[in-house]
Amino acid sequence: MRSDRNTAAPLGLKIAAGAGLAFLHLPILLIFLYAFTTEEKSYQFPPPGLTLKWFAVTWNRPDVWEALGLSVRVATISTAIALVLGTLCAAAVSRTKFFGRETISLLVILPIALPGIITGIALRSAFSFAEIPFSFWTIVLGHATFCVVVIYNNAVARFRRVSGSLIEASMDLGADSFQTFRYIILPNIGTALLAGGMLAFALSFDEVIVTTFTAGQQSTLPIWMLEELVRPRQRPVTNVVAMVVVIVTFLPILGAYYLTRDGDQVAGGGK
Amino acid sequence: MSIATDTSILARRGGLSGRLSDLFWRKPGILLLLMLTPPLLWLGIIYLGSLIALLLQSFFSIDDFSGLINFEFTLSTYRQLLIPSNFDIILRTVVMAVMVTLASAVIAFPIAYYAARYARGKWKVIFYLGVMLPLWSSYLVKIYAWKLILAKEGILTWFLAKLHLLWLLDAWLALPVVGGSSLSISYTGTFIVFIYVWMPFMILPIQAALERVPGNLIEASADLGGNPAQTFRFVLFPLALPGIIAGSIFTFSLTLGDYIIPQIIGSSRLFIGQAVYAQQGTAGNIPLAAAFSVVPIVIMGLYLWMAKRQGAFDAL
What's the fold here for domain B80-315? Predict the structure, then answer.
């Protein structure tokens, strides 16, 4: 006899799960409240008053815009590089079996499996050893390296579902490899790549640990925030920036989820 | 006979792209090589190259007088890790990582279990996004939120004052080791923020493991007279264990290597990540920094090896 699937959860479990989710979300909601506080000098709660003034102040801050611009440029180029490298790797690993296949998966995952500080310091000492000055491109080099895995994971999951006979059929019907890629493979893996790209963008946009080692004098938005956290100077501006960052990172996550929700593996399962 | 086979074979494709496709079809190895070269060059040279260069430097030492690196093979840098002040850093970090991992597993389990067994339809989506959004939201913003919460004038103090429980907070802060003058500069604060930031990484693998447990297995346990505690102890927990171990890989590794959380919310005593940062930055002692960064690599290597034996990778 089939057991009833609709048994209700025990009350204790409901409370524990609900409390756990609340623990994950309340601190982020608090950020939204603090963006409107009138208090400048401390983190006083409850806020003595609410105001929209800090949004205007933040809007007119050139250093925030500069940091934001740098972050967006770094994330865009790193994502583009990671898209190419990650897709190539995923295609190779999923289409064929060859010696050292497992090692390649490991190599791709390693940059996020090892603590970020190790990646950071390794890159920094390599740059100083090779006498490469810090620049925009040293930041991109680091970011692209750990963004590859996000694209790779998404693409591998999708390649598993694209049947090999589709590709053979296309070739049998006279298409060459490039046409097959353009008309058969790309439409099939397109949404997975888009989802992976969004997640890679979010990952790069938010990255701070590796960036502190590869950035030199420039500051990305997370580096700007880190300086504010270590030595708070303009708390109200930081509050507003924090809120904007939360909103900006939520959008790609939601987008990636809706693009891949029908698949066997949903994007973002592993960061 | 031969005519039939001849016509069923298409003519060779013309043009460069056509000839290339024919080549790829006949010799898949060449296509494979072309596809693998760019990513392998990138990861192999930029990433592995720097990593190996870093590890090699841990076998050099720094000259105490000139402050320059002495390029001779020595184990003296590793010996420095064992002097009490450095060894304390390693011990402190490992203890923190273990505590964070255990606490994360305890908090994550009910969420994962509810999501895997009871949540259906709309609730399934809510639980999934409810874990995914905090997981992916900005690392620094999450730390910043806790700075707001734990500050002396912040929401936690206000909340406890409303409940007339301030004495409890004061009593906790008066304790040795875990206490301090305020939660935001104590180990307790560091511990809470570590749990908050890494716990979502624990939920997903546990949920994946629990999804595979058939519901009637738990009912069978109850039918055979097991009470909920026994069912958990002898049925649910062993089946969830690979997921818990898989999740602990993240919580453990991320805690071992983090240097920003203890710097912003914590006492002035260092963790491994901070030691690496200080040694390579202000102290300019790259060999010691490299030796320090070998510690998490070795610990994670051992951990992964044990996890693999427990079958944790199937739950990832």
Answer: MetI-like fold (1.10.3720)
Domain boundaries, chain A: 62-260
> How does pLDDT run across B190-236, given as a tens digit for each residue?
999 999 999 998 998 898 888 888 888 888 888 888 888 888 888 88
Residue A17 CB neighbour total at 10 angstroms: 23
Give the Cα separation of B117 and B220 in Å (integer).
Answer: 15
Domain boundaries, chain B: 13-70, 80-315
**ipTM of the complex as predicted:** 0.82
Residues of A in contact with B147 (CB under 8 A): 43, 229
CA-nearest residue to B33 within chain A is A92
Which of A23, A24, A106, A180 best tests the B interface by mutation, with the highest count of B CBs <10 A? A24
Chain A residues close to B276, C-beta within 8 Å: 117-118, 121
The C-alpha atoms of residue B258 and residue B7 are separated, in whole angstroms, by 66
- At A234, which helix (H) or strand (E)? none
For A266, name the nearest residue in chain B, comparing CA atoms only: B128
- Taking the CA atoms of chain B, what radius of gyration do you get in angstroms? 27
List pLDDT tens digits, range B262-311: 988 888 888 998 888 888 877 778 888 888 888 888 888 888 888 777 76
Task: State in words which class domain A62-260 has.
Answer: mainly alpha
R_g over Cα of chain A: 23
Residue B137 DSSP code: S
Instruction: Render the burial of A194-216: b for 16+ CB within 10 Å, e for the rest.
Output: bbbbbbbbbbbbbbbbbbbbbbe
For the ranges A196-200, B16-20, B195-199, B223-227, the maximum mean pLDDT occurs at: B195-199
